[in-house]
Amino acid sequence: MTTRSVRLALLSAVLIAIMLLPQAWPASSATAPLKPGLPIRSAQEVAVQWKKLMNPSGNAENPYLTSPSVSPPYAPGSLQPRYIRDGVDAVNFYRFVSGLPYDLTATTDLNAQAQYGAVLLAAEDDFSHEPAKPWDMPQAFYKRGLESASSSNLYAYYGGEDHIAALSIDAYMEDSDTSNLAEVGHRRWILNPPLKRIGLGQAASEEGWIYSVMQVVDESRAKVPDFNYVAYPANGAFPLEIFGPDYAWSVSLNEEKFQAPEGKKVTVTVVRQRDRKTWTLNSKYGKVAEKGNYFTVEPSGYGSGAAIIFRPGGILKYEDGDRYQVTIQGLRSQTGTARTLSYAVDFVRAIK
């Protein structure tokens, strides 16, 4: 007997831009290429954190502390703390390798909110940020579920007994299917520097679909890093285990420091150092497809601000030890100064 699995993800319908006041860089750095301005991880650090954070141990066969009910009488239920912890660990690993603070926590109130959203989705297998109200669901329950679904990352899975909390985080970070490539919004919310508090919920429908909800629209971090941009894959050592040849690359700009980018003026150059293979990506590569060269500038307020999204085509796989040099031109600071971004990605194996 074969097991069928389907992974789907939707972008959050609530776009909350983080509005910050502009400030200039010091005059001495006015023309120098900009690095991300975040810590650079070493291969050894990546391996250590992989062992610590990417080995889920929660009970995937029975993840519930109290089981949700997706038909009358409706009940949100709750997840086992260890199972939730596995999902939080995965989020923190992705933030760690991106140079961001990796101390996120799942709070009781946000976990509860996410459960209402998951039950609402599962009640009628309505995978949407605006699911319809089941006729027999109390209005108060529906309201809480709708508030959750409309402000979360959503994931749906069918088949098997996999660790859905961990899988959902991987799917949000991949974010490169044709319905998400042009925005990578799930990824941008997870890599939002001010993020500190999240919530995870899960419920299964009577038809066997499992719905996972991640409350991720948050900016409660007291001390936000003074970053220039968030690159994914990131500057420095980056694990091969979480990045495939058809995945989107993305650079989320700190809108405190950059003017809104104009897509037709931005160019991305990617150079593979071992053979000097070069990709020059710009607006002529704006057609969404499963593979091949791709480029867009996405201005919406997912996470920290506008993003440059690109993909060098024709790569069969990324190799251990490969270095890719990325240069982005055509940006301007808030004061109008032309800015060039430059960083290098060193692909490594996290599992030695």
UniProtKB/TrEMBL annotation:
SUPFAM superfamilies: PR-1-like (SSF55797). CDD domains: CAP_bacterial. Residues 1-26 form the signal peptide. The keyword Signal applies. InterPro entries: CAP_dom, CAP_sf. Pfam families: CAP (PF00188). Keywords: Signal. Residues 88-210 form the SCP domain. This is CAP domain-containing protein.
